[in-house]
Amino acid sequence: MSAPLLSVENVSAFYGSIQALKGVSIEVADKEIVTLIGANGAGKSTLMMTIFGQPRAREGRIVYEGRDITQLPTHEIARLRIAQSPEGRRIFPRMTVRENLQMGAEIDGGQHFEADLAKVCELFPILAKRIDQRGGTLSGGEQQMLAIGRALMSRPRLLLLDEPSLGLAPLVVRQIFEVIAELNRQGMTVFLVEQNAFHALKLAHRGYVMVSGSVTMSGTGRELLARPEVRAAYLEGGR
Q: How far is Cα 201 from Cα 230, in angstroms, rounded to an integer?
């Protein structure tokens, strides 16, 4: 078996004196969709931010493409073709859709801007219609599409998605997950943090369950969907 694209090895992280991650280990292989599920406050978003160096891992290491990136500054990690769409979208509300996408393209120097803009607008046609609108005037679903589009503008090999379905209507959630599946079919590796365990595990090749800062279970998406304890805890009473 070849080495994973991303490997988190026994990582612990803290906020001050509070330990948020407790010896977490996960692997993401090239061209895989891997999801991390868990309750609110379990440490999922902390893990994603730790991969990007904020907060810094206090113990363990993070390896990407065979390179230890644990101590790299965040801006250097971004240049390694890792992109993140953060929880809460964090778009630039006063900037237009085009300007938000230009910000994402800066990591790549903006040299492929028009071609990449066309690709993002093909994935999310509504953004083409809103291209000169300020980000803050978009609906929640449109802002999420913009956040993902901005991440894609840096031409990532690994896309980190933090709670892309949070607070969105079911129809929009379905659209977002269809785009994630399409990106993966095109060869992109995706690490997905989600509270919507049902959609995430249906989509993912493999998954991990996090409880109170520790990984407690792992398996294929189908295996985790079938486990009674996962169904009871995360799938609305076993739907």
A: 11
Tell the burial category of 63 from Cβ atoms under 10 Å away from its Cβ (0-12, 13-18, 19+). Answer: middle
Write 66-75 long-range contacts (CB < 8 A, 24+): 66/3
Q: How confident is the model at residue 236 (pLDDT cuts 50, 70, 90)?
A: low
Tokens of 50: 């730790």
d(CA 235, CA 239): 6
Owning domain of residue 149: 95-155
Tell me the pLDDT band of 111, cut-offs 50, 70 and 90: confident
Q: Which of 191, 199, 227 is nearest to 24 (CA)?
A: 191
Residue 175 lies in a domain: no
At 65, is the pLDDT very low, low, confident or very high (cuts 50, 70, 90)? very high
Asked whether residue 107 carries a pLDDT value surpassing 80, the answer given is: no
Kindly calculate the radius of gyration of the chain based on its CA atoms and give it in whole angstroms.
17
For residue 59, tell me if it sits in a domain.
no
- The per-residue pLDDT for range 181-203, each reduced to its tens digit, is 999 999 999 999 998 899 999 99
For the stretch 72-77, contacts whose Cβ atoms lie closer than 8 Å and that sit 24 or more positions apart, written own/partner, are 77/51, 77/52, 77/53
Our count of domains for the chain comes to: 1
pLDDT of residue 239: 40
22 lies in a domain? no
134: DSSP letter:
B
Q: Tell me, yes or no, whether 60 lies in a domain.
A: no
